[in-house]
Amino acid sequence: MKLWILSLLSLFSLASISVSAQKKHQDNQFILNGTINGQIDGSVYVRYRDLHEKFVVDSCKLQNGHFSIQGSIKEPTITFISTLKKAIPDDDDMEADGKNSTLFFLEPGTVTAQLNPSDFKNGQFSGSASQVQFAELNGKLMKAGNAAEKADITRRFYNQYSSSYVTAYLVSDSHYKLDSLNACYKRLPPAVRKSSYGEDIQEKIEKKEKVAVGRRAPDFKQKAADGTEVSLANFKGKYLLLIFWSSSDMSSRAQSMELANVYNRFKDKNFTILGASIDGEKTRKVWQKAVQQDNLPWMQLAPLKNNHNPAAIQYDVEVLPASFLIDPKGKIIAADLSAKDLDKSLEAMLNR
């Protein structure tokens, strides 16, 4: 009798779990209904993060200009839509040309899209509150005249929608410095912090904390231009400016030329510079030519047998040029100083 009761309770428990899981799945389902005006046939492709936070690609055939795609998502999620299969991004960075592809925010429930061929950027979406916010921001950014105006518009958006999934997505896709990332993350509500975008922000914060001012500079080994292997530890005992750059990035090369004056002024006072290029196998010749043309006097590193620089990943380099001032004990004491500010800092430390 006891066994029968226990078995019955187990069945009820399993049934309850099954119903709960089914309800959760239904709560996360979406239906995307759309029309591409003036286009009768063809295919529509969408790429998004699914219920398990994995990027997936769904597609369907147009029927007299109409399409309908169903799936499940964990939360409001940025979604790529296009009529061109070759336009589908294959990494985390989703970009759309606005002609035959665009980005929008998909949400659980029914979302409707009205699109025009070769003008997807002006498509109309309904049924997604996050998309309303996203469209509002994009509309204002399109009217902005310069980078400063765009930055101000984005800042105002963050202040107005500080608890939005859209804000979390934008911050997770940004190149913000550690203090800005922390400030934005702390304003997000718990539910959004637990979202895929919130987790992305937290991961960015953790990476940047490892190379923040006050932390020990991570050691690495790499070959110099002459083929000799160099370790960052070789420079202990000196003030070192580690600068990441690229031969194809003119701002990097311009900054290096400015740093040459600082280098010449302090090179005999326990200071040196170490250049670490992100150039790889594909740009080997371009890098070699740049090193010769610029005639920079400090040591240059480049992992020319790779397609990227592992040290740049280790130091979480997202924007070039990027630099870290390291003290004789191997501690990071400043980052991304201009040539003028570096000169002032070295003057204060080495000429006192």
Give a brief outline of the structure:
The protein is of the alpha+beta class and 352 residues long. Helix content is 39%, strand content 24%. The protein is elongated, with a radius of gyration of 26 Å.
Run of helices and strands:
HEEEEEEEEHHHHHHEEEHEHEHEEH
- Order of strands across the biggest sheet? 13-12-11-14-15
Q: How would you describe the oligomerization state of the chains in this entry? A: single chain
Overall shape: it is elongated
| Low-pLDDT residue intervals, each spanning 5 or more residues | 2-6, 14-25
Task: Compute the number of structural domains.
Answer: 3
Structure, explained:
Residues 1-21 form the signal peptide. Pfam families: AhpC-TSA, DUF4369. One of its GO terms (cellular component) is cell envelope. The protein is of the alpha+beta class. It has three domains: 28-127, Carboxypeptidase-like, regulatory domain (Immunoglobulin-like); 144-209, no CATH class; 221-350, Glutaredoxin, CATH 3.40.30.10. Helices cover 39% and strands 24% of the residues. The protein has eleven helices and 15 strands. The protein has a five-stranded mixed beta sheet with strand order 13-12-11-14-15, covered by helices on one side. It has a four-stranded mixed beta sheet with strand order 4-1-7-8. A hairpin with a 5-residue loop joins strand 2 and strand 3 (55-61). It starts with a helix and ends with a helix. The model is unreliable at 2-6 and 14-25 (pLDDT under 50).
Itemize the secondary structure elements and their pairings.
Layout: H1 2-27, E1 29-36, E2 43-49, E3 55-61, E4 66-72, E5 77-82, E6 101-106, E7 109-115, E8 124-126, H2 129-143, H3 147-160, H4 165-172, H5 178-187, H6 190-193, H7 196-209, E9 221-223, E10 229-231, E11 239-245, H8 250-266, E12 271-277, H9 284-294, E13 299-301, H10 310-314, E14 322-326, E15 332-335, H11 339-350
Parallel strand pairs: 1-7, 11-12, 12-13
Antiparallel strand pairs: 1-4, 2-3, 2-5, 5-6, 7-8, 9-10, 11-14, 14-15
Helix pairs in contact: 4-7, 5-7, 8-11
